[in-house]
Amino acid sequence: MDWAVEVACLLDTRYADRELVTLVMDNLNTHTMGAFYEAFEPEQARAYLRRLDFCCTPKHGSWLNVAECELSCLTSQCLRGRRIGELIILQQEIATWSEKTNDKQRGVD
After folding, report:
1. What is the Cα–Cα distance from 62 to 34, expressed in whole angstroms?
2. Phi and psi for 23 in degrees, rounded to 5?
3. Closest by alpha carbon to 51, among 20, 14, 83, 82?
4. Where are the domains of the chain?
5. What number of other Cβ atoms are within 10 A of residue 81's Cβ?
6. What is the mean pLDDT of each run of 10 residues along the chain (109 residues)?
7. How close are the terminal C-alpha atoms of the chain, in Å?
């Protein structure tokens, strides 16, 4: 239900002027159309669902999982234990880390 409420909030605010929103998501078992019917009256649930185009990532090896892994690496290898008070310095540090990482051209297993 929490997920459906959050998605509905996005539809009502940030994407209020959009007829159709493509929702790219992982395959978490709580991310279902039924969650809308648990959270809202049937008419409201249907109205939200008509505005959503669900696009699920593959169950194994999805690009979403790869992105989560990269964010974890960024945190542990570049940012952990540091407090960076200036946005420009943060951007420079991340750019340097990103360049070094990309130069290695390592794959994902």
Report:
1. 23
2. -105, 105
3. 20
4. 2-56, 63-104
5. 5
6. 95 96 80 92 97 83 76 90 92 93 79
7. 34
